[in-house]
Design goal:
The protein is of the alpha+beta class. It contains three helices and four strands, in the order H-E-H-E-E-H-E. It is globular. It starts with a helix and ends in a 12-residue tail after the last strand.
Length: 91
Amino acid sequence: MNSIFYDYEIKTITIESPEYPQELLEIKEPPQKIYYMGNIELLKRRCIAIVGTRKASQLGRELSFSFAKNLNERDLSIVSGLASRHRWISP
């Protein structure tokens, strides 16, 4: 397995796992595997994805961090497709 999984403590759950989010089971083609960092229980809260660019400007990074922080303070979990190595995630 890639060392980045160990370095960033990235874990996986499969569609058969009891922790798999119920909402994802209700979509047409749910992902078979989910990679996550942190507390998997946060997926039981309302979730929102922040989509951006891989080459964000400094202002873009600052604004996205601010959005994520404010949304998290309102009990929303921030999820991502992990298009690249994200530095800002919910606790």
